[in-house]
Amino acid sequence: MSGKSSFFADVNRSFNRAATHLNYPKGLLDQVRACNSVYQTQFPVRMPGGKFKVVSAWRVEHSQHRLPTKGGIRYSHLVNADEVKALAALMTYKCAIVEVPFGGGKGGVKISTTKFNTEQLEAITRRYTAELIKKNFIGPGVDVPAPDYGTGEREMSWIMDTYATFHPGRIDAQACVTGKPVSQGGIRGRREATGLGVYFGTREVLNDTQLMKRIGLEPGLEGKTFVVQGLGNVGYFAAKFLSESGCKLVGISEREGTLANPNGLNLEDVMAHRRETGSVENFPGAKFNEDPSEALYVDCDILVPAALERQITSENADRIKAKVIAEGANGPTSANGEDMLHEAGKIVIPDLFLNAGGVTVSYFEWLKNLSHVRFGRMDRRLQERRGLDVVNAVEELTGKKVSATLQAEITHGADEQDVVRSGLEDTMVGAYEQIVEQILSNNEIKSLRTAAFTVAIDKVAKSYLELGVFP
């Protein structure tokens, strides 16, 4: 679904609302809002039968107040310049919210991945990377891509290999891209990072007593019903962690349609059914609707739109029954649609906060690639030995044996995934505290999105001032 205004215009509308709460010169705000660099390229791809198809692609560096810029690469037949600019802008504000030292960037390749085989996709990816290299739009200290819709670890590995081929002997070549396989310099915990960030952020909002009182919900996740639109990495892991926290999954949608069951759906059973049949249709005990957007209208406490942007607009916002809309995707709610949700007394947890788990853990991967040290390698055994010393001391003082289960918990040393998840949780909790602090300090700010944008713009503007660009 789409509204009348462009996606980038919607992002700037949110920016403008937040900017009124800040005391910065217009010229500085104009600089923060503008895209610094936009690169568009076209290149040919050989198709079956010897024919060629010309592929259009973009890379946008929205803000270079900090380098490198950072943002995913999207493969979709719907990609256009406006979308890539909007997503790059959101990355700038997202990075600022969670305090990772990047500017915002984004890439897009206008293809339908189902119409190309693996060899063709590899050729497209490597050619796109070569185009970025030629224009200096990729590099560990310049611009660092990551996966997005239509791309994953495989494509990131091709990008890294192409970059390394063009830069032989460069010791930090692995840091040119994140979201790689662990064997190629990736980090444990990256795959689930965005979905886990959605869980952490939603948990913080649902534990906010004042916000829950406003919408008539008891604080906490336990017993809340939720729906997830989209079963990609973000949607799946968000559903997994919310389910494990005591929430009940009552609706799911994928491209083939929507499943709903007010008594609850078992996520893993649905995933197994889809792997076996290629569809969520005919899942036992659930109602199926061939329209994927029907998931948006299922009665629930929490709706997690985790597919594409602009799914909730002024055309359908009045049909949303959920009290909390947790934006797992980038820009799933249009500006006009969000206005209607607020008027209906609902809470929207904004994407520039909630979707930031991916870039947070990408930052950890980038650091790992630059340092060439796996997280946990230096002190895991030390932690285990010290934990065992504590157990031995307790047993000696009390004369009682500590159970094997408790001993294992106490003596467990943090491995890479433990460190990553801990860092992500701390980041999401800290970011939400800053958003709440902004609301508490300004009675005129009514929405979490405006508060989040205000925090982000303030940080980016201060960076420009510190650079001496605006004396």
TrEMBL record:
Residue span(s) of domain Glutamate/phenylalanine/leucine/valine/L-tryptophan dehydrogenase C-terminal: 187-468
Active site, renumbered: 106 (proton donor)
Any one biological process term the GO annotation gives: L-glutamate catabolic process
Record InterPro entries: Aminoacid_DH-like_N_sf (IPR046346), Glu/Leu/Phe/Val/Trp_DH (IPR006095), Glu/Leu/Phe/Val/Trp_DH_C (IPR006096), Glu/Leu/Phe/Val/Trp_DH_dimer (IPR006097), Glu_DH (IPR014362), NAD(P)-bd_dom_sf (IPR036291), NAD_bind_Glu_DH (IPR033922)
Binding site for NAD(+): 194, 233
Record: residues binding substrate: 70, 94, 362
Highest taxon listed in the record's lineage: Bacteria
Keyword Chaperone: no
Protein name, UniProt field: Glutamate dehydrogenase
Species name: Eiseniibacteriota bacterium
